[in-house]
Amino acid sequence: MLLLLGACAPSGGEQPSPPPRLVLFLVDTLRADRLTPYGHDRPTSPNLERLVARGAVFDQAWSPAPWTLPATASLLTGVDPDRHGAGLHGSWRDLASQVPDGLAADVPTLAERLGDEGWRCEAFVTNPFVGFGLERGFESFTLRQTEAAEVLDWTLERLDVPGDERPTFLLAHLIDCHDPLLIPDEFVLDARPPGDRLPVPDISNRTFSTLAMTPEHRAARLRLYDGAVRYVDAQLGRLLDSLEADGSIDDTYLVFTSDHGEEVFESAALARGAGYVQPETVRPLGHGHTLFEEVLRVPLVIAGPGVEARGLHVPGAVATHDLVPTLLELLGVDHDPAELDARSLVGTLRGEHADARAVVSRGIAFGRDRSALLRDGWSLVRGGEGEATVLLRVGDPEHLDRSAEEPDRLLELGADLDALNSLAQSRRGSATQIDPAQRARLRALGYLDRDQE
Ligand SMILES: [Zn+2]
Which pTM does this prediction carry? Predict the structure, then answer.
């Protein structure tokens, strides 16, 4: 027995392995397609490339909601917006005039789960909608609407606390890609061509009309957005530099993701065609108002011990809140999978198989109650009362409704969404029955593998 114990203890002179450490680098309002690992042709993200070389990049990561509170609540709990409850409810939603509901009391956060295992969990967040219960489990939770450099100063300071040997989870939340894009000039790429006097529209004032967004305005807006991406990427670089300098980068779990994307007038015509009506002040710009690709598709890169799939691009659709069961499995924290609406991606990270699933998004902030299903490179967006359902091809530069040319696919994805809605309702204890055809459909979609047959 003594020999066995001796064999497990560190031998003389060797360092015991350090306690686990996790940094969640969460960039508010970051659409995937402005990042080079996601195909952008401008050099916005050299430091994210460094991280990708160390981990897996999920090419089709979708948010389960299009605005901060419900999306971040899912990201930090692993459950769908209709289960965690954080967000706006009712058939007509208007964030400007309604107070959102907070996180359901019986849904634990990742920080609570890790805290129960003895972790030191701390957060620095820059958007007041990262709250409403999301602070639960963090022993320190700083909310300050400030720039990314300050968040990274804090992150680097809190990576190690002298005398504190507990495992560490840091949430670093950055707001710089959100309106009004107040970034240092040095990060704006090719700021303006010589002689270009085009004013950058004041996006913080949403009163300009749809017609005011000329192609030149849109390009200027995206130039500024790319600059914001460069700025947050430079802060990621500071974190990577620090971890490389002290030799701890291989022992640190690093996750880079976002709560939702951002529209810059991509889908104005689509929304009009589908009969969407928005509150007076909402334009086809920003987020929270639709469930289209530019608002839902975000980056997801995961690196750390046990991640073998370094530099691997994972093509299948996953949801951002798959992160919670993934991290729990990587970190060896037990949980009941039935408590979550997400799936672990550890098999993918270990290079064993490719995870892909159908993703449902809902929980808008402005307008009717809509829902979207994302699967196999297509998205079906079902409108609320008086609004049309549209079928979209992922990555379609024309942003056109393909319903008329793909009638079979329209029916198929509609039936998928019905089945997933029935599953969600039955899990929440309603009397909804899932019929045998829906069961077969759900199994084919990657659901029901752990649910009671
Ligand atoms: Zn947000």
Answer: 0.92
